[in-house]
Write a structure and sequence with these properties.
This protein has helices at 3-14, 42-53, 70-75, 94-107, 119-131, 161-168, 177-185, 213-218, 239-252, and strands at residues 26-32, 58-65, 81-86, 109-115, 137-142, 171-174, 193-195, 225-228, 256-259. The protein is α/β, with parallel strands linked by helices.
Amino acid sequence: GAASPLVRHLKAEAEPPDGDNQALKQVVVNFFNLPPKNPGDFIPWHHRMAERLLPTGARLFFLTHNSPCADTFRASTGANFQVEILEGLDTRGRQLVLHLARFIRQHKVAVFHMNFVRPWEAMGLMALTRLARVGTAFIYQKQSSGRLIQNPLNLKKYVNPLSVMSLLADQVVGLSDAVVGNCVNRGVSRRKVIKIYNGIHVQKYAGVRPSGKIRTEYGIPPHHSIVTTIKEARPEVRLEDLLLSIPQVLSACPDTTFLI
C-alpha cells in the first residue's frame, strides 16, 4: 500500500534540474527498531518493495538490530536491497539517535520509514537531520491505538510527544482506523496521517475451517466470543492497551474470552 505514493515521491525527487534523464541513485530506509525474533515475511516483503522502487533508481535498506536471524537477513542482500544490522545499540536513547543521524547523512537517505520508535527519539532524529540540511522525508509508523483523551480541556489532547513529533514528520502512518483516530485525537493533523493496513497473505487461509482445538485446549465455552492477539510481551507492542479494555468489553459482552 505504501509503495505507490513512495514511488511517485522518488520519481519527482529524481528528476535532474538540468533535464538529464539519468536519475540519481537514492536510498530508502525501512528501520525496524526491535530485534526480529524470526525472519517471517520480512525478506519477501522487502524484495517486493525493492522491485517496486527499481524504476526510480532507488536502493532499499532494511535497518534493524542484531538478533538470532541477523545472518539470514544479511544473506538476503541483493543488487537493489541491502541489510544493515545495528550492533550493540539499545532501542532507545541518545546513542541510537546519533547513530541513525550519521547513517542518514552518510547515505543521503531520501526516505526514512521508522517502526517502533518512541516520539522523543523520532523528534531528536528528525531535528538533527534538518539541522544537517539533509533533505530526508520521514515516515513515522504508529503501531498501537493507545487511549483516547476524552476531556477537551486536557492540555495533553493538543500538546504531547506524538503531536509535537508529527510537526517534524512528513507522514504518519496508522495500521487501522483506531490508530488513525488516536493520532487525530492527540493533535496530529488529518492531512498528515494516513491508514495503511499490514499486509497479510489471506490466500493461505482460504477454505480453512475452525477445528475447535483452541477452545478445547484452553477450556473456552463454545458460546463465547474470543478476542485474541499474537504479540511478543515487550513494552513496545503496548499490550497494556488490550488489557485496559477488558473490563469495558466484559461489561458490554460478558460471554467473551481474551486470549493473548
